[in-house]
Design brief:
Blueprint (H helix, E strand, L loop, with lengths): L24 H21 L8 H5 L24 E2 L12 E2 L2 E2 L6 H4 L18 E7 L5 H9 L5 E11 L4 E11 L12 E11 L2 E8 L4 E2 L12 E11 L2 E11 L12 E12 L5 E6 L8 E9 L2 E7 L20 E8 L8 E3 L4 E2 L9 E2 L10 E3 L2 E7 L7 E7 L7 E7 L2
Antiparallel strand pairs: 1-4, 2-3, 4-8, 5-6, 6-7, 7-8, 8-9, 10-11, 11-12, 12-13, 14-15, 15-16, 16-17, 16-19, 17-18, 20-21, 21-22, 22-23
Length: 426
């Protein structure tokens, strides 16, 4: 969870609190370098459960976790001026404390080159159905600059996890946030007492960010309401996306709550139920369509993350199983989320029937798909990106129960991926 107000891991909320252009290629590569850095930061602090030593998972063994007390210092800021369908004046974030140190770095000018929207009036075109707010600006787009920015509250947004970043094709980037906690009052120290939305959006324009949510200034509503029956026990989490001809296509994972999990290491009481595909107008962010995905299954979720490269949109697959009790409990590993799969469709056509990687080539038969990576004990949720022609993934080892980050590279999206570095996530 990013932005924990008191520096301690937060459990799930116990009750619902909402109503339920070619010229951009170099810029995109620069931002993606920063995104890899943010992935490291996000991976390091998203574990709400007890941590295990990295070495215990790399050799295939598992032991009882070691109790840790993460320290993430954040500040509480006043709620910015916010209106429905409009934008408040921009503010600039100058510094933020991460743990006991302030993030500083020698910045590569290529990384800090600001990518700005081709249309400076884009905010005025957003659909009036959204509450729109300026949430500040990062000092630069380096990994350290982005990490410092996201370590502090984003306007009223105090915490979130699972960010997904999608280029919108016009100089802007869309950040899809999962499980957002919003403090409309100011000064609330516990996530349990804040507004809660399963999905919220940020739009990045250069170094600055704008938030989009449904609802109003007293009650947050998830950005994607899916089939309209959002409850505390049933909602949608964002997955992969792509943009073509001014339309954003995004996969969504339909999540279903289960009875209480069996043990402390069995994760959280949620599992993916189906995969859906939504279409939005990039200019207004208004939803145009919401239909079951071409492959609506969840074992794995094809489209868990999506990367465009060449003539193809690559759909990486993972079961994203959150409740290990449904698979016999923590001890009954390796679990399904330790396997990463791959499919592909013609670039920008997520509605098309995928072809699946079978270990040596592509097939239309999903039942013979083979994993491109299989490792660890509970989770191997890779989120690859392309940086200067090389595939790079920063992966939290074993998710909730791990205490390390592995950096892997490959020449092709199907691998093989080679681990270049192991980093601690304490």
């Amino acid at each position: 969870m990013i932005g924990a107000a008191d520096g301690t891991p937060e459990a799930e909320p116990t009750a619902p609190s909402s109503r339920t252009s070619p010229g951009l290629t170099k810029r995109s590569s620069s931002v993606r370098r920063g995104v890899v850095g943010v992935a490291l930061f996000c991976s390091a602090i998203t574990s709400p459960f007890l941590e295990n030593g990295l070495s215990n998972h790399l050799d295939g063994e598992h032991v009882a976790p070691v109790v840790t007390s993460p320290s993430v210092t954040t500040s509480t800021t006043a709620l910015p001026t916010t209106t429905t369908g409009s934008i408040a004046p921009a503010s600039t974030t100058t510094s933020a404390s991460i743990g006991a140190t302030t993030a500083t770095t020698s910045v590569d000018p290529a990384v800090t080159a600001s990518t700005t929207a081709l249309d400076p009036q884009w905010r005025t075109k957003l659909s009036p159905e959204y509450v729109v707010a300026d949430v500040g600006c990062a000092s630069d787009l380096s990994a350290a600059g982005l990490a410092a920015f996201f370590a502090a509250p984003l306007g009223a947004i105090e915490g979130f996890d699972g960010p997904r970043i999608y280029p919108l094709g016009d100089g802007r980037y869309l950040w899809a946030l999962q499980d957002t906690f919003i403090d409309y009052i100011g000064g609330i120290k516990s996530f349990a007492h804040m507004n809660y939305a399963n999905s919220t959006m940020l739009i990045q324009d250069g170094n600055c960010f704008t938030s989009l949510q449904r609802g109003d200034m007293t009650t947050a509503v998830s950005f994607e309401v899916g089939t309209g029956d959002i409850t505390f026990d049933h909602y949608f989490w964002p997955a992969g996306a792509t943009v073509r001809d001014g339309k954003l296509q995004m996969f969504w994972m339909e999540m279903q709550r289960d009875p209480v999990v069996g043990g402390a290491l069995d994760g959280i009481s949620l599992h993916p139920k189906a995969t859906w595909l939504a279409t939005y107008d990039v200019a207004t962010m208004q939803r145009l369509d919401f239909q079951p995905a071409s492959n609506p299954g969840v074992s794995p979720v094809f489209g868990y993350t999506v990367v465009d490269d060449g003539d193809w949109s690559y759909l990486f697959g993972n079961s994203y199983q959150q409740n290990l009790a449904l698979e016999g409990g923590y001890g009954n590993g390796p679990h399904s989320a330790t396997k990463m799969y791959l499919a592909r469709v013609p670039r920008g056509h997520l509605e098309a029937s995928p072809a699946y990687w079978n270990g040596t080539g592509w097939t239309p038969d999903a039942t013979v798909a083979q994993p491109i990576s299989s490792r660890f004990w509970t989770e191997n949720s890779m989120l690859p990106v392309v940086v200067d022609g090389q595939w790079v993934s920063a992966t939290k080892v074993d998710g909730f129960t791990g205490s390390g980050i592995t950096i892997d590279v490959a020449a092709d999206p199907w691998g093989p991926y080679t681990t270049k570095k192991l980093l601690p996530a304490t």
